[in-house]
Design goal:
The complex is a heterodimer of chains A (805) and B (201). Chain A is an alpha/beta fold and 805 residues long. Among the domains of chain A are: 232 residues, 3-Layer(aba) Sandwich (Dimethylsulfoxide Reductase, domain 2); 144 residues, Barwin-like endoglucanases. Chain A is built from 22 helices and 33 strands. In chain A, the strands form twelve sheets. In chain A, strands 26-28-27-33-25-31 form a six-stranded mixed β-sheet. A five-stranded parallel β-sheet of chain A has the order 3-2-1-8-9, with helices on both faces. The longest helix of chain A is centred in the middle third of the chain and has 19 residues. The mean pLDDT of chain A is 98. Chain B has 201 residues and is of the alpha+beta class. Chain B folds into three domains: 43 residues, no CATH class; 66 residues, Phosphorylase Kinase, domain 1; 80 residues, no CATH class. Classes of the chains: A alpha/beta (805), B alpha+beta (201). At the A-B interface, helix 2, helix 11, helix 13, helix 14 and strand 12 of A face strand 1, strand 2, helix 4, helix 5 and strand 4 of B. Strand 12 of chain A pairs parallel with strand 8 of chain B.
């Protein structure tokens, strides 16, 4: 979240789209209801189904799954055509005035940007750049009139997204769209703020990153980013998915969102050359110029005394991302690719902390096959899962195998759960909240820190006694914890924060980090979370002096305890808040006061350092230059890879995302067409269950005992299916069976002149658990497609057929 | 007969200490509220309260876990009798959703894994093993994979020290501290490149 749960109460308009917070984040949703009650805020819900959020919305629009970019593009066009734009904000805080280089173009007929290479199936992005002067500064036209200004290019680009076009693509009424547009864009005046709440309904697409970018663009045009009650807010789906992301749990980065060193970065100098961008405007802060200090301090935390100036502070010990020798391209080890490589026999072992890929990955049959190729599998779990027991005949049958064919050694380590460990969880608001251990784990179950500690110290012991391949990082890693086989959370939290290695003092802020090896910090983003004054994540003050729900002394928020990101954008060129009744930060003539400023604390606004300090432009990007995104500098609507229609934006041209990654490895990596699979399928969660855990819980199963398929009443009538009868849903990958639930919540729709039905499948069931399981695992049907930027699979909007059993 | 004013506290004191529940009921007639209050108070009366955070979605509701006993060192086998929303939290202010309200099922559950289980190659069942045996075997397997498959130099002769023959996944309901330890031990220590969690899916 750019803002936070409690801040949603400050909104005048809330757009809930690509998520169903009333169902999936019910306690967070109370702040939406509070905004409605106290401010008279309007809630607009846009979704393929009339769900629980829609039920309390002021306005609901049903759209076809996967057409969100068309809807949001329509909103951008509506804002630009009606003048519902906060012009002063846009001029000051975005790259709307920037001039784009000659040569950039978009072909409305083919749906492709300039630079498309048909053979390589990728873009040459060299025309997607700003015009720069001799010093490397981007050229700007403050009047926004230049025909190649980002503003004019954007206006022309989205002019195609008329209400009629939105209706044709999304399958909604043009009037329903226009009414939504009127409400949503009503926040453009300086004294109004609107927020967007989204979740996996936006990330589970082959164009997910561009979709969220479209939302950010809309919020920028309306002047809503950085504002209390504004922002673009990802609701996130697990207790500490945010913290895991912060801690570098992705193959492409290290803790604190720094890129992982690549094969070509032979020295730290090579790495830093790429990791530190050049500023694009004279006064921009260009925050990532601090990378040498942040990264050196991290290496010191990792390797301690073994990180010396001679070995570039341990850089030579740290792994680098390999290139594929065949293509010369960097290898992709993102989640879905791990299993793709595994299916090809390239991965011997997997260590799994409480994750259930058989259920939560797309294309489950491929997941089971991939696991069966492993030599060894270690899973630390609270409950037996489909992954710990993938080799049992009922599950293995999905991949056409028998237990005796599978040579994988499997270790099911009984693990402690959340209540049996201390430590911090970071919620969607970026608040790192400390929790305390309540009891010991049952039986022989152990906490994960002990599992990690025991495995690592044992491996290290073997390297000490037997030697082995490149033992240096294993032996050099600083594992000097008081109890090395089970490091205490408190000790680790101190290390993550970091200290001055000369004085031994805990650091109060990442501004104290140095690049000379005299400071350490496991993750600069959490620097300030555990200072010499104590563990800030334990704070429990409920003081809220501004009444704006910032709660600055309740636990601790990254970065630097800032509660609203980009808060400099909540003020004008002189540092005065756009809305004095709702200030985030204010320039008092000497310093910025209010929330922790997302800006140099004493930088005079007249100097114009730029509100978006992490970007080399210093301003937000309506146009994303260069190779930031694989499929274009402006988000264009592309169909899901499996779609019932040809893309109505450019019929006969590019229908789906040209850069989407489609797997073709196994027999289950296949796509279907509308001829065989005419219905749009989508997946979602229910409030009664949490993923695949609560199928072990008696009360959750009592409330929601078995899998069902939500089917429009009209489709049921057409196919002679009655409520409660058993149906089979089949995609090109496989089929599942469950009870039919005929509903008016999903209406038939007309898309590009064609009648289209959608059906919905809740996740939560599988093979192992209480109640009726029976292999009703929705992901058996989901497609082998991922977004080319985030590598998120397309769980939402794919093709299926329906049959009565 | 005048009805005496009895607070919840005096009612409970009388009820528990004097064994005059019957009399109290006759005073209150059909008002069941005090009886309900008594049942609830008794359930958590001698428990230890621990502040925690719900492990489900990312709203971050604070919860209070009530465990039996006072957490003395000589007390083992304690159990959770109740989990409720923490009224101090500015996020949930004491409330919880249906999943959060039944969190006890996640902690005290006969389906919890309590033993180290091992499945041998080709087997159709788990067998019980000791932790020491398992850690020793896992460490040997990891070392074998790393010794054989660590890419010390790539196809262009550049030193990269990358291990892609093993992967590490998970951690979305693990603390920041454990996620950091995963990074440190497996990525920085053993050189594992594929370290991924639930964020992309």
């Amino acid at each position: 979240m750019t803002n936070g749960w409690t801040d949603i109460a400050n909104a005048d308009v809330i757009l809930a789209m690509g998520g169903n917070p009333a169902e999936n984040h019910p306690v967070g949703f109370r702040f939406v209801m509070e905004a409605k009650r106290r401010r008279g805020a309007k809630l607009v819900a846009v979704d393929p189904r009339f769900q629980r959020t829609a039920a309390v919305a002021d306005h609901f629009v049903q759209i076809r799954a996967g057409t969100d970019i068309a809807f949001l593009g329509g909103l951008i066009n509506y804002a630009l055509q009606t003048g519902h734009v906060q012009v002063d904000y846009v001029k000051l805080h975005t790259n709307a005035p920037f001039i784009v280089k000659e040569g950039y173009s978009f072909d409305e007929k083919t749906g492709l940007f300039s630079g498309w290479d048909k053979d390589k199936k990728q873009y040459d992005t060299s025309t997607w750049q700003y015009e720069v002067d001799a010093q490397g500064n981007a050229q700007v036209d403050p009047t926004l009139q230049h025909p190649r200004s980002v503003f004019q290019l954007m206006k022309a680009f989205y002019a195609r997204y008329t209400p009629q076009k939105v209706s044709e693509v999304c399958g909604c009424d043009a009037e329903a769209f226009t009414k939504a547009a009127e409400i949503i864009t009503s926040t453009y005046p300086a004294n109004r703020a609107g927020t967007i709440m989204y979740a996996l309904g936006w990330t589970h697409h082959s164009f997910s990153v561009q979709l969220i970018k479209t939302a950010a663009m809309l919020q920028l045009l309306l002047g809503n980013v950085g504002m209390p009650g504004g922002g673009v807010n990802a609701l996130r789906g697990h207790a500490n998915i945010q913290g895991g992301t912060d801690m570098g749990m992705g193959y492409h980065n290290v803790p604190g969102y720094m890129p992982i060193p690549k094969a070509g970065h032979v020295s730290m100098e090579d790495y830093l050359k790429v990791a530190v961008p050049k500023p694009l405007r004279p006064n921009s802060v260009n925050f990532w110029s601090n990378t040498p200090k942040l990264f050196t301090s991290q290496l010191k935390a990792f390797y301690g005394a073994a990180a010396t100036k001679a070995n570039q502070f341990g850089y030579t010990l740290h792994p680098r991302l390999p290139e594929d020798p065949k293509s010369g391209k960097l290898e992709n080890w993102s989640w879905a690719y791990i299993y793709d490589h595994m299916a090809q026999g390239q991965v011997e072992g997997l260590v799994d902390f409480g994750m259930n890929p058989v259920c939560n990955g797309p294309n489950s049959r491929k997941m089971v096959f991939a696991l069966s190729q492993l030599k060894w599998l270690v899973v630390a779990e609270n409950f037996e899962t489909e992954t710990t027991s993938f080799w049992k005949s009922e599950i293995l049958a999905l991949a056409g195998k028998k237990p005796e064919d599978v040579k994988t050694e499997v270790f099911l380590l009984p693990a402690a759960n959340f209540a049996e460990k201390s430590g911090s969880f970071t919620n969607s608001s970026r608040w790192a909240q400390w929790k305390y251990k309540a009891l010991d784990a049952p039986g022989q179950a152990k906490p994960d820190q002990e599992i990690i500690g025991r495995i690592f110290t044992k491996v290290r012991e073997l390297y000490k006694t037997e030697g082995g391949t490149f033992p240096d990082p294993v032996l050099g890693l600083d594992w000097s914890y008081t109890n090395p086989v089970s490091p205490a959370e408190d000790e680790v939290a101190r290390e993550v924060n970091g200290k001055d290695l000369t004085t031994g003092q805990q650091l109060a802020s990442f501004s104290a980090l140095k690049d000379d090896g005299t400071t350490s910090s496991g993750n600069w983003l959490y620097c300030g979370s555990y200072t010499d004054s104590g563990n800030m994540m334990m704070r429990r003050s409920t003081e809220d002096p501004t009444g704006l729900g910032r709660f600055s002394s309740w636990t601790w928020s990254w970065p630097a305890n800032r509660r609203i990101m980009y808060n400099r954008a909540s003020a004008d060129a002189q540092g005065k808040p756009w809305d004095p009744s709702r200030p985030a930060i204010v320039w008092n003539g000497k310093a910025w006061v209010g929330d922790v400023p997302d800006y140099p604390g004493t930088s005079d606004p007249e100097k114009g350092a730029g509100a978006f300090i992490v970007l080399p432009e210093g301003v937000a990007r309506l146009f994303a230059p260069g190779d930031i995104f694989k499929e274009g500098p402006f988000p264009e609507f592309y169909e899901p890879v499996e779609s019932p229609v040809d893309n109505p934006m450019h019929p006969g041209g590019q229908s789906h995302n040209p850069a989407a990654n489609i797997f073709k490895t196994t027999q289950w990596d296949v796509l279907g067409t509308a001829k065989d699979f005419p219905i749009v399928g989508t997946t979602y969660r229910l409030t009664e269950h949490f993923h695949y855990w609560t199928k072990n819980h008696p009360r959750a199963i009592e409330m929601m005992p078995e899998f069902f398929v939500e089917i429009p009443v009209e489709l049921g009538q057409e196919m002679g299916i009655k409520d409660g009868e058993r149906v089979r849903v089949t995609s090109a990958r496989g089929h599942i069976e469950g009870k039919a639930l005929l509903t008016k919540r999903i209406k038939p729709m007309t898309v590009a002149g064609k009648k289209v039905y959608q059906i919905g499948m809740p996740i939560h069931w599988g093979f192992i658990g209480l109640g009726k399981q029976g292999g009703s695992l929705a992901n058996i049907t989901t497609p082998p497609v991922v977004d080319p930027n985030s590598f998120c699979p397309e769980y939402k909007g794919f093709l299926v057929k329906l049959e009565k059993v | 007969m005048s009805v005496p004013t009895i607070t919840r506290r005096t009612f409970l004191t009388t009820g528990v200490a004097g064994g005059v529940v019957g009399a109290a009921v006759s005073v209150f007639g059909f008002d069941v509220q005090p009886a309900a209050a008594q049942a609830r108070t008794l359930k958590i009366e001698r428990t230890t309260e621990t502040r925690s955070v719900c492990p489900y979605c990312a709203v971050g509701c604070s919860v209070i876990i009530h465990t039996l006993g006072d957490r003395s060192r000589n007390v083992t086998g304690t159990t959770v009798v109740h989990v409720e929303g923490d009224p101090d939290s500015p996020i949930n202010r004491g409330t919880l959703c249906s999943k959060g309200a039944t969190l006890r099922d996640d902690i005290v559950n006969e389906r919890r894994m309590t033993k180290m289980l091992y499945r041998a190659p080709g087997a159709d069942h788990f067998e019980e093993k000791s932790w020491d045996w398992a850690i020793d075997r896992i460490a040997h397997l990891i070392k074998e994979t790393r010794d054989k498959r660590l890419i010390t130099q790539d196809y262009k002769g550049r030193s990269i020290n990358a291990l892609t023959a093993m992967a590490v996944v998970g951690g979305c309901t693990d603390s920041n501290e454990n996620n950091y330890l995963i990074q440190k031990a497996f990525r920085a220590g053993l050189g594992v490149i594929p370290v991924e969690q639930q964020a992309r899916i």
